[in-house]
Amino acid sequence: MNHRFAHKCRPQFRTGAFLLILMSTLWLSPAGAVETRIEGPIHQDLVWNTESSPYRLAGSVTVEREASLAVAPGVVVRFGKGSQLIIKGRFVANQTRFDGMEDLHNREALVFQPGSRGHLVFCVIQNLALQLRTSDTEVTNNVIANRNGSGIT
User: Fold this and answer.
1) Distance (Å, rounded) from C-alpha 39 to C-alpha 147?
2) Model confidence over 96-144: pLDDT tens digits?
3) Torsion of the alpha carbons at 108, 144, 67 and 107, rounded to the nearest 10
């Protein structure tokens, strides 16, 4: 048995198993949960937590340059029709589900503007565009599934 090969495969299996568990738990959020509506600019540092999840974005929500937004593990962020989350400041999400509309003609997006900084790790990004206009954003071990034809740009 080639022990180097077995050692290299184990982390990939754990990552794959973790992503499968993450996807199943995030897709099973309560249907009747009360949503926290978010709209307009964010000018101060915020943390979106599981107690207020799911969050529903209405229109364009912008994290301004002086602000940071951290999204706690297990939070669900739903995008209303045509909504965008625009990052100009700092953004961190770990084990978060971002859920756009399933209509093929919608334009929901998570947008990282030039000068922004961000981390998306072990997230599920579904039915919305992910636009990276900065080189200072880490996108690692995420699941991206889009019926509307958008993806990472």
Assistant:
1) 25
2) 999 987 666 668 999 999 999 999 999 999 988 899 999 999 999 999 8
3) -10
Structure token pair of residue 61: 């929500």
Cα of 145 vs its chain's centroid, Å? 12
Q: Does residue 153 register a pLDDT over 90?
A: no
CB atoms within 10 A of CB 61: 21
Tokens 């961000």 belong to which residue? Answer: 118
Radius of gyration of the chain (CA): 16
- Burial label, 135 (beta-carbon count in 10 A; 0-12, 13-18, 19+): exposed
Q: 53 with 33: CB under 8 angstroms? A: yes
Nearest to 36 by CA among 12, 4, 72, 65: 72
Distance CA 54, CA 2 (A): 46
* 3-state DSSP helix/strand/coil % of the chain, to nearest 5: 20, 40, 40
Q: Give this prediction's pTM.
A: 0.78
